[in-house]
Every structure is written in C-alpha cells, then in structure tokens.
Amino acid sequence: MSVLHIDDLRTSLTLNGRQHHAVREVNFRIEEGETVAVVGESGCGKSMLAMSIMGLLPSIAVVTDGHVVLEGKPIERESERQMEAIRGARIGMIFQEPMTALNPVLTVGEQIAEPLRDHLGLSRSEARRRAIALMERVRIPSAASRYDSYPHEFSGGMRQRVVIALAIACGPRLLIADEPTTALDVTVQRQILDLLDMLQDDGRMAMMLITHNLGIVAAHADRVVVMYGGDMVESAPVRALFRNPAHPYSRALLASLPRVDRDLSELASIPGRVPPLTRLPDGCRFIDRCPHAMKICQALPPRVPVADDAEHEVRCWLHVEGSGRDASAG
Ligand SMILES: Nc1ncnc2c1ncn2[C@@H]1O[C@H](COP(=O)(O)OP(=O)(O)OP(=O)(O)O)[C@@H](O)[C@H]1O
Ligand code: SF4
Ligand SMILES: [Mg+2]
Fold first, then answer.
1. What percentage of the chain reaches a pLDDT higher than 70?
2. CA angle (9 as vertex; 231, 53 as ends), nearest 5
C-alpha cells in the first residue's frame, strides 16, 4: 500500500462566480521511504496540490473530484477536526518561510512539545524531554538550554530546524515540504536537505518535496512530477526524466538549465509564462507555448506510458499513437 496516492485529483477555485481548475486530474503515488519532487514554474499549482492534500485550501477552493488516499484511506472529505488530527500526527509539513510557521510569542520548546501533548498525550515533563531529544535530532546545538528561546533568537537555518522538529514530532508517515529551503542561503540549504534525507531514512517516511531547483531534484528525489497550469504533465523516476524527458515542457525546463542548480523562477528559454487560472486553455495547458502544438491539442491529452515504462507517464498528444506526430518529435 502506498503511503500517499493522489488519485485523479481536481481542485477548483471560484473566481468571479466561475470555477477554475487549479489542479486537474493529478495522479501519482509516494511509497514508504520515497521522495517525490514536484516541479514547475511559479503558478503551476504545486502549493494548491499540497494544500489539497493537507486540507488547508483557502475558502474559495475545493476538491471537486478524485481522492487523496493516505495509507489506503481517502481523506479528501474528512472533517476539519479529523484533518487537524491527521496533520498533527500522520502528515508533517514544512513551508518555505520558517517564521510564519512558528508562533513568535511561544518558546520553540513549547511549540515542539505542544503536538506531543495534544496528539500523543504525553505529560508536560515527558513532552519537554521528547522535545529536547527532537531538537538534538535536528542538530540544534545546546538543545536543552535553547528550549526556552523564542523564534526570533534563532538564525533562519536554525528556525527551519525547529520547524522540521515540529513537523516530525509525532512520527508522521508523510512529510510535505513546500520549498523548504528557498529562503535560505546555499550552504544552509544543503544542510537542511541532508537533514531531511537523514530523518527520512531513519523513519522510512514518504516525502513530497516541492522545489524550483532541479539540482535539488537530482540530488534528493527518487521520482519527479512535473506540473504545468495545474496539470501533471509528466511523472518519472528522476533518472528517466533527466535522460529522456518526454513532455515538451519538461524538455524546455531541462534545456533552459545548462546548470542544474539554476532556479526555475529564472527561466528565460521558454517564451511566455504560465497563464493565470482564468485564462488556462481547456485542452493541453501548454498549447500557447508549445513548439509542437497541433489541432488535436485543443483537447486534453490522455496520460500515456513512455517507452513502455509504467513508471514514466506523460500527458501529451505527441505520445499518443496515431495523433499526427511521432514521439521522437522535438
Ligand atoms: N487564494 C487564491 N486566490 C486566487 N488564486 C489563487 C489563490 N491561490 C492560488 N491561486 C492561483 O492558483 C494557481 C496555482 O497557484 P499555486 O500557489 O498552487 O502555484 P505554485 O506552483 O505553488 O507557485 P509558486 O512556485 O510560485 O509557489 C495560480 O494561478 C495562482 O494564482
Ligand atoms: S499536447 Fe500538444 S500542445 Fe500540449 S505539449 Fe503535447 S504537443 Fe504540445
Ligand atoms: Mg507555491
């Protein structure tokens, strides 16, 4: 059983009385101990996907179809109360900006101890002991003496370690990290990612890692999901994607990156940009920017395997037999 199965998920946003799909028929699995990276330019729906999984969508958004299956059980229609329990214990979350994830008026120790008391029912002193052990585990120096410090007394990197300690406090099965290192400098980024790798190996956690950085994908992910305009346009094991990107968007992403450590937000080689939600085309979302666009691309392309590899899927008419062109185009 997969830890997470995103099963043809659709999430709509209502803007000016009309529904728009911010996530459309996204489909992938994350197994125990596995890291799946989700990549795509700004506005492609990566955070909406994460929020759909965690039940933290803004009030104008709703999951309309499909399922978020956590360890075999659909959770997309759970009550807010049940989702709170799931978020505290079974799904851990790390966001880009550590300061917003922490409460500035509570000490870091109290914040880590809180879920231990709420979700695991530990006593105050037990929770304190466990929180200090967690701070040590995420390599915060002099953990015991820093239990009573406030977030603003920590550096950005140390604050992100606190956020990670908080996220893993109850031993979640799934960790969702939405650009966890974007706000940090390069050396600290590497340390945080190495820490996540270590924690994941220890706990056999599944991880969904949202990132703009293909260098991070190459170094830290097992599989990758490429999103464009709310669609999952390609999913593949990391090596297969880097060797044989099938979707014109994935190819353009990789081609624009002479160095893999460049950030996707700096892309220059694909003319144009991701359309806003209100102007997304009905068929292939990439049609306006695609050098291979055909008439048939006005219809949503099906998901098809690439090179008979069940692990490698693409959503593009170029790869559908008999649709006009052959898969090697481009
Ligand atoms: N609260 C909201 N109100 C209106 N539109 C929204 C809202 N949240 C997201 N959107 C729109 O939904 C689409 C997907 O946004 P999302 O935040 O998921 O992108 P993203 O891939 O996470 O981008 P980034 O890399 O910049 O974080 C975008 O078109 C965005 O403008
Ligand atoms: S479906 Fe058509 S427009 Fe979309 S990426 Fe493939 S070839 Fe391009
Ligand atoms: Mg985002």
1. 93
2. 105
